[in-house]
Write a sequence for this structure.
């Protein structure tokens, strides 16, 4: 899949060289700020889920765990992401169970909220899209505590906390879509009224790419899906270049914020007598 991506770029060099590229610095800076919201929000939600399940330690410790496992997800792939979390919490009483339960709740929340927003912004969904969103969110609030009990989480999950996680997920998805729109517009003249169709393309491609656990962050699959879904308003050669730019910038931001979190929490871990965790 990565080979197909590189082949498409190689065969489109003439088109890319003649494209109307531009750089709008102010818009690019805003895009980077907006795209920083999802990784920071994810670190907060991860720590809150672990604490809600009875995990020990400070929020800083759990943010550190998230940062370390994020490096594994972005580089080797999703399976190593889970393995890294299990290793981090392995010394805690019930730590592996908590890490796996928290990972399931985290992934389920991201998936549910992403699908809800996708349905809400699909063309022709002005009436039934929000209705489906309300119904799905209500079901999630009812199901999440029971799902946690099924996987033997020993601490009941209060619904207000689950609602907070879903809200954070909605903010992350919204920031992601807005950030991509700002990023693309900072590099290439987008057609008018392209925000909603671009948001649909981003939501669908990220959801599809997230299913490819063996690939680092859905590498290749997300870019191809995004390019195909944008083909009606952005030429595919331009779309593939923009999709690669999106990949490079989001990966860089994830690694940057992971490094910042690790640096900020290192002193606290050392003072607390931790073992690098």
């Amino acid at each position: 899949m990565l080979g197909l991506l590189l082949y498409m770029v190689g065969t489109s060099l003439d088109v890319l060289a003649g494209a109307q590229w531009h750089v709008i610095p102010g818009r690019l800076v805003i895009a980077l700020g907006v795209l920083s919201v999802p990784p920071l929000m994810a670190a907060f939600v991860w720590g809150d889920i672990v604490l809600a399940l009875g995990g020990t330690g400070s929020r800083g410790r759990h943010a550190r765990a998230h940062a370390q496992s994020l490096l594994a997800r972005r580089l080797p792939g999703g399976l190593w992401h889970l393995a890294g979390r299990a290793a981090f919490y392995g010394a805690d009483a019930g730590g592996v169970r908590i890490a796996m339960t928290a990972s399931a709740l985290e992934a389920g929340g991201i998936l549910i909220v992403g699908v809800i927003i996708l349905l809400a912004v699909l063309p022709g969904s002005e009436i039934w899209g929000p209705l489906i969103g309300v119904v799905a969110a209500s079901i999630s609030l009812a199901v999440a505590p029971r799902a946690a009990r099924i996987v033997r989480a020993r601490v009941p999950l209060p619904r207000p906390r689950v609602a907070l996680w879903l809200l954070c997920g909605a903010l992350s998805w919204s920031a992601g879509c807005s950030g991509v729109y700002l990023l693309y517009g900072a590099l290439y003249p987008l057609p008018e009224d392209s925000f909603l169709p671009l948001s649909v393309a981003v939501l669908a491609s990220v959801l599809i790419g997230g299913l490819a656990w063996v690939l680092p962050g859905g590498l290749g699959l997300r870019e191809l899906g995004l390019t195909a879904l944008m083909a009606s308003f952005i030429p595919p050669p331009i779309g593939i270049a923009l999709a690669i730019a999106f990949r490079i910038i989001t990966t860089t931001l994830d690694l940057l914020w992971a490094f910042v979190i690790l640096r900020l929490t290192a002193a606290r871990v050392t003072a607390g007598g931790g073992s690098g965790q």
